[in-house]
Amino acid sequence: MALAIPGVTFVFKLLFKVDSPKLKRKVLGFTFDNPVGLAAGFDKDANYVQELSHLGFGFIEIGTLTPKPQPGNPKPRLFRLKGDQALLNRMGFNNGGVQDAVERLKKLNPNVIIGGNIGKNKVTPNEDAAHDYLIAFEALFNVVDYFVVNVSSPNTPNLRALQDKEPLKKLLEQLQLANNNKKKPKPILLKIAPDLTTEQIDDIVEIVKSTKLAGVVATNTTISRGELEQTKEQALDLGNGGVSGAPLTQHATQIIKTLRTKLGSEPVIIGVGGIMSPQDAQNKLEAGADLVQIFTGFIYNGPSFIKNINKHLIKVG
Ligand SMILES: Cc1cc2nc3c(=O)[nH]c(=O)nc-3n(C[C@H](O)[C@H](O)[C@H](O)COP(=O)(O)O)c2cc1C
After folding, report:
1. Exposed e or buried b for every residue in 127-158, given b needs 16+ CB within 10 A?
2. What is the pLDDT of residues 88-97, one digit of tens each?
C-alpha cells in the first residue's frame, strides 16, 4: 500500500537497496544484483512482485503454482513457533492457478529476476503429475527466468513420493524435453526436502546429472519435530505440516555441503532453510550454495533483513 504513494518507491530503494559489485553473481546465465532471494510460497500468485522487488531482493520465486486454482487446506494452517524461531505451515498449495499469475506477470516489468515454482494439483494422481507440471511450465515459460520443480512440499498428499528415483527421472526427462524444444531453453532446478535418506540424495544427484538439470534448491520445510526445543509439544498439538526457520538451519546447510561434494562445481545450488541471521546466509554460501533464499527469517526479522545480509556479505567479501 505504501508503495502506491508517489515517491515512496524512491524512499524504499534508499532504505533497503544495497548496491555493490561484490554482491553480483553470474549464475544460471543471469547477473544477479545480489545473492539473496525470496523463497517460494510467500508470493505464490505473483501479486506483489513489483513491491517486493523494492525491498532489495536479488531474485523472487513465485509459486508454487498449479494448473488449476485450488483453495489449499482449511484454516488455521500457518502458525508461529516463537520459542524456536520457526513456522509450521500446512498451506497445501493454495493458489489462484497458473494462468491468473501469468496474466499478472505479463503486465509487469519488474526489475528483478523471477523464478517460477511449479507443482501439481491435489486432485491429480501422481501417475499424471507430469502433465500438471508441463501445463504450468508451458504457461509460465515467457514470464519467468528460471523454473523450480517442487516435489518436496509435505502438504500435498503423496507429493514427496515423486522424489523417488523412477517417477522423478520420468518427470524431469519430460520437462527437459519440453524445455529443449524451445528456441532458448530456461534453467530448471529441482527443490528437495530436507528429510531425504542418503540413498535418495544419491539418486537425486544421479538424476540431476543425467537430465542435465540446472541445479537444486535445498531445502523445503521439514516434517521432523526433532529439532524443536521449546515448542515441540505445541507443534505436536498443532498437527501436520512443515517446519521452517531456525530448527532447519544446520540440517539444510549440511545437505548443501553434501550436494556440492556429490554434484561437483557446475550445477547451481540455491540454499534455503533457516537463514535467520546474516551469518547463516554466509554459512550456506560457504557450504557451496551459489545463491540463498529466505522466508521465515524475513518474517521474524522484517524487511531490513535483506539489506543486513547483503551488508554482511560485502564485509566478509
Ligand atoms: C507459509 C509457507 C508457505 C510455503 N509455500 C511454499 C510453496 O508453495 N512452494 C515451495 O516450494 N516452498 C514453500 N515453502 C517453503 C519455503 O520456500 C522454504 O523452502 C522453507 O520455508 C525453508 O526456508 P525458511 O526456513 O527460510 O523459511 C513455504 C514455506 C512457508 C513458511
Report:
1. eebbebbbbbbebbbebbbbbbbbbbbbbbee
2. 999 999 999 9
